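Task card 7
Instruction: Convert sequence to structure tokens.
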Amino acid sequence: MLARRHDARPDQQALEEAADWLIRMSEGELSDRERGEWECWKVSTPERARAWARAQLLQTKLGGLPPSLAMSALDRPSSPQRRAAMGKLAVILALVPAGWGSWKLAESQQWSADYRTAVGQQRELSLADGSKITLNTDTAIDVLFDASQRLIYLREGEILVQTAADISPLARPFVVSTCQGRMQALGTRFTVRERQPQTHLAVLEGAVKVELANNRQGTPLIVNAGQRTDFSSSTFGAVSATDRNVGAWSQGMLMADKMRLADFVDELTRYRRGFVRLDPALADLRISGAYPISDSQRTLNMLAQTYPIVVSGHLNGYWVMLSPA
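Output:
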């Protein structure tokens, strides 16, 4: 039952209790007794389990509690300031987007990866063979070069790959692997985004041969320059033309060409900590332009200057709402 109701909103009492635990943890390390109480509390009922799942999502997305809710300077355990902050935090937990439940927080292995980026960060790597990998925001990869292959395993996130000819006499294939399949570069430049339950591939130069994780013996798909496709572990999607702006993020830009505002906001939130919520009345507003991903607040201000949008920020910018002007 709990698994089927994972995205349901917990009751208010459970949310307030989760808020209280978050605040207590922000004040410092829990004692052994407190940690035992917390461990028992979070698994004692399905409602509490769901409330704590939302608290974990909030912590990860914000990188900690907003400064305005930090409680280290407030009296414990029942000052009016503390109770007010706890109530505000419970409201925030109630509004955490349900879709965040698909994040792989519990099982994520990002911090043990060979290379990784934080939210909003890009990083370029030069590999031993001369190939170059650019990691987009919130990305983790492993690199394995051995006698038989040059392998990049994309754990999560998005990469831009520029391959080089193998410097060894073995002519080892260059492969990018995800949970959904293996992509062998055929002298090429391409982007790969791992987005459960699919991998998104766009080829900018050359070609890429794709094999599905659950059908390695089947006929591979060849995706050529100017083409893109999505695939799951067992099924290829349609091959279509690549968006010419697919790699613009590697230049620090988020490009929009008559793009739905709802889709734009989904992309923008990948590059910032905190929440951006959109009034449904604006979801289908079409926007165009080039926007910097390194300064998401500037991007939001640009939208407000160009389109009938009001941007309102709360909690020192952690929570932003876009409303009709």
